[in-house]
Every structure is written in C-alpha cells, then in structure tokens.
Write a structure and sequence with these properties.
Elements lengths: L21 H26 L5 H49 L6 H4 L4 H18 L4 E6 L13 E9 L12 E5 L2 H6 L3 E7 L1 E3 L5 H6 L13 E6 L8 E9 L5 E10 H8 L10 E8 L5 E3 L4 E4 L10 E8 L2 E5 L5 E9 L13 E8 H51 L10 H20 L14 H10 L4 H11 L4 H8 L3 H15 L4 H8 L10
Parallel strand pairs: 3-4
Antiparallel strand pairs: 1-2, 1-8, 2-3, 2-5, 6-7, 7-8, 9-10, 9-11, 9-15, 10-12, 12-13, 13-14, 14-15
Amino acid sequence: MALSNTAAPAQAPLSGRGEYSLSLRLFAFLAVFAAAIFLALALILFSAGVFSLGLTESRVFLENELAHIAGELEGGYGVLSVEGAALSKRLTEQIERELESLNAAPGDLKKTPGLIEPVLRSLMDTLIAALEKNMAGGVYVTLDATVNPSAPGAEHSRAGIAVQNSEPNALNRSSPSLHYLKGPASLGREWGLFMRPQWTMEFTVSPGDFWYETVKFARAGMDISRLYYWVPALVPEGDFREVVRLCVPMRASDGTPLGVCGFDVNGMLFKLQNAPDNGVHQRVFSLFGPVEAGNAPRFDASRSLIAANQGTRFRLTGVLSAEESRGGLPLFTGQDGTRYAGLWRTVKLYPSQAVHGGQRWAAAVMMPQSDLDNYVMRKNRGILALLSVLLAFSIAAAIPLSRRCLAPVYHAIDRLKEKGVSDYEKTHIREIDDLFAFLAERDELAAQNGPAGEGEKAPAVLTQRFNTFLRNLAALSKAERSVFNLYAKNYSAKEIAYTLCLSMNTIKTHNKRIYAKLGVTSRKEMMVYVDMMTGGEALD
C-alpha cells in the first residue's frame, strides 16, 4: 500500500449555490420560526372564534334589542287589543242607549241619517277618554251609515269620528294634543279640538279594506274579543302618515252590525317606542309587520312600520326576503339589492281560535350588511395589528439575537486568523472546538511526518498513532473495507448506502465496527489519517 502525505485535492463548490453568512442564515431561520409561531397563533385564535368576536357581539346585541322590542310590542299591542274590544262594547252600549232614547232601533241608524250626529255626539267623551288612557296615536269609530245616502259614491262613504294625538306628544298622555281628523265639524268645535287641514266629514271605504275586512265577521257567533283585526301599515285617506290600525267590529244586542272602532298606532309613535339603541351600530333599525314565515321569511316593508334613531336615513320598499345567513345571522335582500343582517321573531297579536289568527306578525332588528362587515373588521383590526406588531418585534429581535449567538464563533475565527490553530481559544461550542482540534491534530501530524521529496519513499518513522491506524486497517473485514474505501473517496453515508445497496442501519453498524477496529472515535478523526494516505485512490 503506497502512502503519501500529499493532501487530497479540494472539492469545487457546488454550482448554483449562493454564499450566505452564518449570521444571515441564522436570522432567516429565526424569522421563519417567528412567522410560523405567528401563523400558528393566528390559527389558534381563529379556531377559538376570536376573529368572529365582532360578529358574536353583533348577534348578542341584536338578540337583546329584538327580545326587548318584541316583548314591548306583544305586551303593548295585546293591551290595545283588549282595550279595543272593551271600547267596542262600551260604544255599542252607548249607541243602543242613544237610539233607544230617540225611539229608534239599531237597524234604523242606516236608514235615518238624522240619527247619526246625535249618536256620534254621545260617543265623543268615550273616544277621547280612551285615547288619553291608552298608548295610541289615534282613536276612531265608523258607523255602518252615511249622512247622505243619495249622494254619488255614498256606498263608499261611512259616517264616523277620528281623533288623533299629534306628535311629538303621543307619549305624553297627561297633556295630549288632540286633533280632529274626521266627523261632523260641529262636534269638533263643540269639544274645542283643532281641525286638521286634512279633515273630512266621513270615511271613504272600499272592498277589501279595514272596514269590509272587519264588518264581514261582525255576525260571526263569537265574542268580539276574537273578531278584531290588525291592519298592516297603511296611510289613511286624507293623511300622510303610516299607521297600523286595530279594527274591532261593533255588534248590537240583536246582532245588527253597527260599524267598526279601534285605535291607530302611527309611525312616529312606533319610532319613539321601538327605535333600537344605536350606541353600537349607528344604522340599526326595527321593523314590525306581517311576515310570510318559512325557510325564507319575507317582510313586506311597504306594509310595515320602521323605527330608527334620528340621523339614520334610508327608505325600505318592497319585500325583504332572507335567503342566506352569515354567522347565524339571516341576510335580508331588499328590492334595490341592498342586504341587511338581522334577526326576527314572531309577535302574537291574536288569541287562540281568533278569526284572524292565521295572520302572522313579526318584529325584526336589522342593519345594513356593510355596517356589520365594517364593525367586524374594526374588531379584528386590533387583533391583527397586535399580531403584526408581535411578528415585527420578533423579526427585529432576530437580528441582534443572531449576532449575539454567533459572536463567539466570529471571535474564535478572528483569533484563528491571527494565531493559527496551534494557539486557539476554546469557544465552548462543541462543533467549533472539534473542528479546531481536528485542524490542530492534522497540522501536528503533518509536522511530525515532514515533507516527502519527489521520488522519495514514505518517512521511515510515523507517529505511533498513525502506525497503529495503519496496522488496524488489516483488521477490517471485506465489507468494512469497502465502506472505508468509499469514505476515503469523500462519499457520504447516504452515498455509500446507495452505492453498496445497503440500508442506513447497516452503514451505521459498519461505522461502529470500523471506528472500533481503527481506534478512532469519529469520522473526522479517521479522515485525519486518510489524508496522510494516497489522495482519493481506493485502498486495497
């Protein structure tokens, strides 16, 4: 076996690889690690529902507002329904007493126009007292009679009285501002009521309206408390404000329909009572009207009352239908394509087995979907900003941290350049200290062997350790020698396994046996002696 102290030729650097400093590599590692932590934290927060906090808060807000408003509506309209039935009975009794005092029967009222004004006069105090007592925007009574039956269109005209409690005093029942909207002018002047510019003598009715829809059930063999009818939002003739109207039939003791009475709840009163709190969402509004319930509830905005706080300006028209949802909140689409997020709840207005019990009413609290999206974004913005600051701080901290970690390495390399490996200082970094020990041992061996001239034989005396290494080579088995020869050619363990068609576990076993037989503890130490041998040739 020929020996030489000629060093093996250095391998050329792999092409295509950039040269990066240790500091840059460590910084990149720390930056990637910080980004991974950031993404993991963001995923945990998302899974925990933190990013849907704004949506959850909005839903809780809508639920609370809806529960309050729906409860108030059900209670308030329930009271008005009971008061309306009681008013119908009182007015019926007064009409019959007045007719009796005039020697007339209930059926004569329709035939004798002269009875109308005294009958209406007898009802004025009761109507005004009912309006002042109840939370309503107006009270009315409509008789099944007209002052001039022979006039054109008389079949659509009905005598009656309508008194309104004008805004903004609709909630102030102690000092109401009463306006006279319909009825004989003499009665309005007699009671000192302000005559509205829209005043008319009589009501105009038409098939299918509040009058006909109520009177047609007046002869039903049921108590009046089961015959009343809530009319969806409408603008009464001669007025300009929307109202929801309670209609209760009046039926004489002999079964003769006398007319209809009830209360009006106007839009302003509804707004004062049921506008939701806009402290959280500025454009939130409530809606009350009939609903077509099912898989996709539908509200007819044109037949509903809407309440929003001052400064909120939008107009709902047409049908609002819920066909989608976001985070459990139904999304209602308006006729103009605008989408609203909100909740709805059925409001019970009729007792069981009532004639109009099949009519479903509901309350809803909604807001434009764009407002909800902006609110959720504002909530998430703070969390994202905090996470971004944390990520930026982590990456910024990676710069001095990487420099601090590598400072001992740079210091040791500088010392190595100044004094060489013979006088190096330990860095207490195992890999660096092993490298310096390897270089020092290699230099020591090279110094002990000395240079070999051209054509000269190998040095006669080798160091004891190197001689021991050479003797131990003979102890290697054929398989171990094949592995050793490939190590001598600078093959890696994976390359040796591939070349010899062996598993990595087999290579590891061979390594342990080779190191034991050669008296070395690592591949680095083994390569020190290999470098003293023929450069790159197989060892036979």
